[in-house]
Amino acid sequence: MKKYNTAKSKELFFETKKYLVDGVSSSFHKADNEEYPVCMTHGKGSHLYGVDGNDYIDYVAGFGPMILGYAPDVINEAVTKQLAKGSQFSAPTEDLCRLAKKLTEIIPCAEMVSFQSSGTEANMHAWRVARAYTGKMKIVKFEGQYHGWADEQKVTIGAESIDDLGPREKVNKLMPTAGQRVSTADDLIIAPWNDVDVLEKILREQGDEIAAVLMEPYMCDEGPILPKPGFLSTAKELCRQHNVLLIFDEVITGFRLSLGGAQQYFGVTPDMAVFGKAIAGGISLSMICGSREIMSAGHPSGTFNATPIAVAASLATIGELEKPGTYEKMDAIGKRLTDGILDIGKKHGIKVYANHHNAICQMQIGMDRAPLDFRDCLQNVNREAYDRFYLLARDYGVRLTSGRGRIYISTAHTEADIDRTLEVFDYILPLSVK
């Protein structure tokens, strides 16, 4: 199997570092264990193309937005048509009304919506609305779950070991970014996800001060980790008992697990939800949604909230995802991939876990079962092997997310993509596990 040459990417990256902080526009664009990232020229469908002339089967999907693949004709046409009319009006449009109405029809918890531009902004707004509505200040969030990079949000999103996290009953507030104000975490309560007993104790003892419990309903940012049977419904009932709002952060799961998000997929409706990434198929757009009463507690400002371009892209994306058989096709592609990963693990005698959930797949090296929680992943997932696997996959034409086993499927992925991917995985998995 021929290894890709990426010398031009390396040269371009180090030239860019002279002018751009760290040489990339987001810390997500270069893995910690990479000397340099591959620089891309363009993408089409399920493939990206690098400056070195290499072709990559892509499972990063722009970190989630590209649910229709790269440069889909339907979005290109919608955006081009809108560009001819104007990109920004600072005024409502008929399409804005159409989109807001459509979202309330397809998302279970949505009676009203409010638009922002990014997942970080949407979470900031959701927290503020929850506090305004309840008159309480504290927020429960869970270890390992990412809700944005603002000071208050980027707390205990990762850890090197269980010891870093501290006891389950009182998780440490880890603030890893230089310049973060420690005081912004004063109103946060950090808990282990998937642990009903700890959540019940927190709500029983501090429910009168807690505005909301915030969670990824399928923990994708680290892991990924599925909710234990009954965890989501029990969390909802506990929140109801203690007059605390339940917020699902569906920035990742929204439109990927189903058109109505994880809440539709798992059959548990939260009080509020945050959506982003795939909502507009690659154009910047996010939103929060909930009941009319809750949503009326606050309204955001912003120059680029739901621009006509983003609205056009979102309507086009939803139109494609609504077509019969779309999710069934992505789930079948995901099954082909994850079944193949499991077979490769058995062939080489290497512990691997893989599973598929419509447009999201997961893979963990070092385990042959589903991880239970973040601590289980820290203790049992072979992260060093996955880091090597990530770099080797890149070297042989498959692009994965770094540092975690999250794999994004799009409507553009084909059986041929999967078969080629499995050929690469079969070659590199034994090289990754030392």
UniProtKB/TrEMBL annotation:
Report the cofactors.
Answer: pyridoxal 5'-phosphate
Highest taxon, organism lineage = Bacteria
Name the InterPro entries on file. Aminotrans_3, Aminotrans_3_PPA_site, PyrdxlP-dep_Trfase, PyrdxlP-dep_Trfase_major, PyrdxlP-dep_Trfase_small
> Which keywords annotate this record?
Aminotransferase, Pyridoxal phosphate, Transferase
One Pfam family name from the record? Aminotran_3
Q: Does the keyword Transferase apply?
A: yes
PROSITE patterns in the cross-refs: AA_TRANSFER_CLASS_3
What are the recorded GO MF terms, alphabetically? Answer: pyridoxal phosphate binding; transaminase activity
| Family listed | Belongs to the class-III pyridoxal-phosphate-dependent aminotransferase family.
How is this protein named in the record? Aspartate aminotransferase family protein
Q: Which organism is it from?
A: Candidatus Allocopromorpha excrementigallinarum
